[in-house]
């Protein structure tokens, strides 16, 4: 059966980046379609009628929604190359735990760093750095979160790295001084072709964030 793979995405989305990386780790050719989130395409609304959000992975006409589910789906469908989730059930459960932690905590915290002012921003900055330190502690002395192998937790977190310069600019932070091992991990991830091709340039992200801040009158 032919594999027709389409990804409905939005270039600065750290969630869409996960799916891009997973597909490239597996060597899967896919058609990338960048969505206008202020004018969503009929295909996006049709394939994700519940949340109406990107990313949507369409495999042979069948949509799969939510980035973490997409990454697991990709790992199961194309299981013959570059496993993403560990084979051991306990290690697999731990990897899912940490990506769930990232999903529940990181987005809201990082949003406060660049998208708020005053006391709310200060609280958000502290919360964000604490989250990064928790993740850095889990990484330990390992190359990747899965030890020597790039995998599910790395894919779950690395997209946020493309936003780090924006966090630093608007949050007046120095993330490397706070979490040097996490930055070293990110730089190692960026050496992978799948990651380098999937993450946007950080300066482009800063420009995007600047426009959003102006729209919400934070500038």
UniProtKB/TrEMBL annotation:
Keyword presence, Transferase: yes
EC number: 2.5.1.18
Major place of residence: cytoplasm
All residue ranges annotated as the GST N-terminal domain in the record: 3-82
GO BP, one annotated term: glutathione metabolic process
Keywords: Cytoplasm, Detoxification, Transferase
Protein name listed in UniProt: Glutathione S-transferase
One matching Pfam family: GST_N
Family per record: Belongs to the GST superfamily. Tau family.
Top-level enzyme category: transferase
Compartment annotation: Cytoplasm, Cytosol
Residue ranges annotated for the GST C-terminal domain, each copy included: 88-216
Function: Is involved in the conjugation of reduced glutathione to a wide number of exogenous and endogenous hydrophobic electrophiles.
Record-level GO cellular component terms: cytosol
Transcription recorded as keyword: no
One annotated GO molecular function: glutathione transferase activity
PROSITE patterns from the UniProt entry: GST_CTER, GST_NTER
Domain of life per record: Eukaryota
Species name: Brassica oleracea var. oleracea
Reactions the enzyme catalyzes: RX + glutathione = an S-substituted glutathione + a halide anion + H(+)
